Amino acid sequence: MANIGIDLGTTNSLVAVVMGQTPRVLLDDDGRSMTPSAVRYTGAKQADGSDAPPMIGWDALDNAVDHAETTLTSVKRFMGRSLDEARKVAEELHYTLAEGEGHDVVRIQAGDKVVTPVEVSAWILRLLYMRANECLMAEPTGVVITVPAYFDDAQRQATRDAGKLAGMNVLRLLNEPTAAALAYGLQENSQGTYAVFDLGGGTFDISVLELTEGVFQVLSTAGDTRLGGDDFDRELAKLILSKAGIENAKGSVLRAAMEAAEQAKRDLTAGEIAAISVELGGQSVQMQITRAEFNDLIRPIAERTLKSCKQALADAEMEPADMDGVVLVGGSTRVPLVREIVEEFFGQKPLSNLDPDKVVALGAALQADILTGSSELSDDLLLMDVVPLSLGVETMGGVVERLIWRSSPIPVTASETFTTQVDGQNAVDLHVLQGERELAKDNRSLARFKLKGIPDMPAGLPRVKVTFTVDADGILSVSATEQYTKTHAEIEVQPSYGLSDDEIENMLESAIDNAESDVDQRLLIEARVEAQQVLAVVDKSVKADVDLLGGNETQVISQVSDALREACESDDRKRIQELTTKLDEVTAPFAQRRIERDLKLALEGQDALQVLDVLDRTVKAAEDAAN
Ligand code: ADP
Ligand code: MG
Fold first, then answer.
1. Which residue among the candidates 119, 152, 176, 482 is catalytic per the annotation?
2. How would residue 524 be classed by pLDDT, with cut points 50, 70 and 90?
C-alpha cells in the first residue's frame, strides 16, 4: 500500500515515493528521473482500427523536429485556460489550436487528431503512474499532484480532471512551493521564514513560508505562469534565427532553433561560451555566444521575477532581509544569472543543497506518505496554503462585501449574514466575486445563484447566512441559508475559464492604483443607499400617520425629501449626507410622536408582546440616533 507524489511540470515531470523514511524519485528504464512533459500523436492505428496510444516523454521528443506539429509540449500552459488566453499562448508554440464549430473549450490540433490539454496531461500522468506500478510492484493507492501556487480554480480543476482521466485516485493537489518547503523543512529540520523561488520551464512562483516545528504556513504567494526557461530559449532562438535571416519561423524550423537554444543555454550554465551549430530549413547556422552576451539577452526576463518577489514580500509584510533562507526550485534556477539576481535581491546566497529539479516531487511524495496515515511524520504536520485573491459577494449598490481575504490560509470558511431590502422578497440573488477592488463591476465574476423560496417577511427580517468554503485543494464552494426557514442553496464554484496570472496581477495592480477613487466611489454609493433607505422609511411613515403631522411639518419634510432625492442623482456625496442628516432631524419629533402613540396603544391593549416590540423599536431608534 503506497501513495505516490507526482510533479506534473510544464517541461518535465517526475514521480516519487517514500521508501523506508526517505522520499525517492523513481527512475525510468534508462535511469533518468525526469520525463519530458511531451506527447506525440503518431496517427498509428491498432489492429482493431482504433487509435494507437501516443508516444509519451522521451520517446515523444526523440523526433520532435520532424514532427513538430504533432509533438505537444508545455500543455500545462493551456490547462484551465479560456480560448482567448490559449490563443495568445499558442502564438509562441510550434503547434496549433483546433478552430471552429463554436467550441469554447481549448483543443489542440495534433495532426488529424484533436485533443484537449487535460487528455494530454492524462497521458503523462499515466506514464508516471505505470512507472510507479512497476517499481513498487503494486498499484499505487493514491496520488498527490503538485500545481503552481498561483493556479486558480479552473486550472486546479483541470489538473484534477487529468488525474481522474488517467484512472488514478487523486488524493490532493499540493502547491509546488509548499512541496519544496516540505522536502527541505523535514529533511533539515529548518525553522524560520523562507522564500521559495521556483523558476521552471514555463512558470514562475515565489512564496513566503514560515516553518516552525512541523508546521508550514504559506504567508503569501505570487508568480507568473508565463515566465520561465522557455522564454530564455525563445530569446536565444530569435537571435539564432535572425543570424539565418529567418523571420516568423514556425513548426519544425522554430522547434529546431528552440532545441539548439536550449542546448546552448545549458552549455552556458556549465561554461563561459557555447558553440551553436544547427540546420534551419536547409541552411546550416554556426555561431558562438558568450555567457555575458547571453546574460544581456535574458536579463530583462530574469528580472521580471523580482516584481513578483516584491509583491509576495509586501503581502507577507516582510523585507528581503527578513528571510532566513531562500530555496531554489526548478531547472532554470541553475542559470548563473538567475542565481546572481536572487542573491542580490535577498542579500544572501540561496540554498540549493537539494536538487532543484527533484525538490517538488520529493515533497509531493512526503505529502502522499503523510496521507497514508502511517507516516512517522505525525498528523499534526499541517500544510497551509493561501487564497490568491479575495472572495466576496456583491451587496446593495454594487459594492463588494469580502468574506475571505487574499492570502488567508486554506482550508478556510467564512460566513456573513445578509437580509432583504423589500417587503415580501422571496428570493435573494447572490453574485460571487473574486478580486481586490471596491466595486463589483471591477472584480471578476465567479458565479451567480439565487436563494429561492423565502416566505413573505417584511424587509430586513430574513437572515440569509452566506458561507464561503475554500477546501484544501483551493476550490471554493458557496452556500446560503435563510436562518428562520432553513431555505438552502449551494454551489461549487467551477468557473469554466481560468483567470490568467496576468489578470491576477492586473487586478492587484489596479486595486492599488485605484484605491483612492475606489474608496470615494464606495462612500458615494453607501451614502446613496443610506439616503434611499431613510427616504423610504419617511415616505411610509408619513402616509401611515399623516394625522400626527402638525404645522408646516408636511411641507418641510417634503422639501428636504425632494432635495435629497435630487442630490442622490448627483455625485455630491457631502450634500447627500448633509441632507440625509437634515431629513433625520426634521422628522425626529414626528418619529417620537409615532413611537409614543404606538406605545400608548400597546399598553392600552395590554398586549405584552406588542409592548416589547415597541420598546425594542424605541431602543433601536435611540441606538440609531446615537450612531
Ligand atoms: P517545469 O517545472 O516547468 O517542468 P523544470 O523545473 O523541469 O520545469 O525546469 C525546466 C527548465 O529548466 C527548462 O527551461 C530547462 O531548459 C531548464 N534547465 C534545466 N537544466 C538547466 C541547466 N543546466 N541550465 C539552464 N537551464 C536548465
Ligand atoms: Mg517545476
1. 176
2. confident
